[in-house]
Amino acid sequence: VNGKLVIPVVVNVLYRTAAENISDALIQSQIDVLNQDFTATNPDFSSTPAEFAGVAANIDITFVLEQVIRKSTTKTSWGTRDAMKKTKQGGLDPTSPSTTLNMWACTVGGGILGYAQFPGGSLATDGVVVDSKYFGLSGSGAYPYNLGRTMTHEVGHWMNLRHIWGDASCGSDLVSDTPVHKTSNFGVPVYPYVSTCLPAHNEMTMNYMDYTDDRGMYMFTNGQKSRMAAIFVSGGARAGF
Ligand code: ARG
Ligand code: ZN
Ligand code: CA
């Protein structure tokens, strides 16, 4: 990285229906949400409970939309095995994946909102997928996944963040300033949400790496910021940025 980290983004749109052919304006709204969420300028950041305000972070990474690539298809759903990332399978290969964040907007199916590839994987499949319905601010997807936070969560994974519950009962996310969570949380838990993991403490249900409703997630932590920053330094898995 030379100075401030600005991530170039290419959005790959795969559509069969008009609704799947999401507009440039909706795509820009998603970039705007990401820019807010990764600079702690999202309007709900100030809802962070005082208990967690000291660790709530400005990640200080911004995103710039370089290109939107559109392709029509006859596929009704793409699944979660990377077919949308392969031109040979009817999808679209990523553009310059060592220096560009590729996003795919398509119908995933199976009730999946989106999925991401962690750093260190194959460049040919690198990037994040978010179902067309949940792409952008107030897309066609109904409440409670209508605020573009699926992308914030997926880009968190793409930058090496684990789920806050560590995908295990009272598991670890390898970040020390996020509290231990029993499991994934849904809806919008009311603070304080007391953990059943010991010793007694409150869970940080408003962290982007939990599974709450879009309006219930609005912060990353300093520890998560360090974990993200580490992949972009020389020798890191995304040093090309
Ligand atoms: N289930 C997805 C994943 O594990 C994303 C969940 C995003 N949550 C949300 N409120 N948009 O990557
Ligand atoms: Zn996730
Ligand atoms: Ca933790």
From TrEMBL:
<keyword id="KW-0378">Hydrolase</keyword>
<keyword id="KW-0479">Metal-binding</keyword>
<dbReference type="GO" id="GO:0008237">
    <property type="term" value="F:metallopeptidase activity"/>
</dbReference>
<keyword id="KW-0482">Metalloprotease</keyword>
<keyword id="KW-1015">Disulfide bond</keyword>
<keyword id="KW-0862">Zinc</keyword>
<keyword id="KW-0645">Protease</keyword>
<comment type="similarity">
    <text>Belongs to the peptidase M43B family.</text>
</comment>
<keyword id="KW-0732">Signal</keyword>
<protein>
    <submittedName>
        <fullName>Zinc metalloprotease</fullName>
    </submittedName>
</protein>
<feature type="domain" description="Peptidase M43 pregnancy-associated plasma-A">
    <location>
        <begin position="116"/>
        <end position="230"/>
    </location>
</feature>
